[in-house]
């Protein structure tokens, strides 16, 4: 279970990194006045999806962590 949690945490790190990269690209395009490129690249939708994915992964991590704690408590008693 711990490996699964670690895997999700690593995935969260990768998603945060990608969100950061896309935000930098979005900001640069906005400053350059290239809204058509933002629309063409579908950056806003991609960012929304990544934020949703990150939120869902955090929920899964919380659930798995709670399950692991309950299992540890059962083993100790």
Can you count the beta strands? 0
Please mark out the parts with pLDDT under 50 across 5 or more consecutive residues, or reply none.
Answer: none
**Beta-strand level of the residues, as a percent range?**
under 5%
**What is the N-to-C order of secondary-structure elements (H for helix, E for strand)?**
HHH
Q: Termini distance?
A: 20 Å
Percent helix: over 70%
State the helix count. Answer: 3
| Global outline | rod-shaped
Average pLDDT:
95
For the largest beta-sheet, the strand count, sense and barrel status come to: none
Description:
By secondary structure, the chain is mainly α. It is built from three helices and no strands.
In short:
By secondary structure, this protein is an all-alpha fold. It has helices at residues 2-31, 35-41, 43-76.
Using brief descriptors, characterize the structure shown.
77 residues, mainly alpha, 92% helix
Helices and strands in order:
Layout: H1 2-31, H2 35-41, H3 43-76
Helix pairs in contact: 1-3
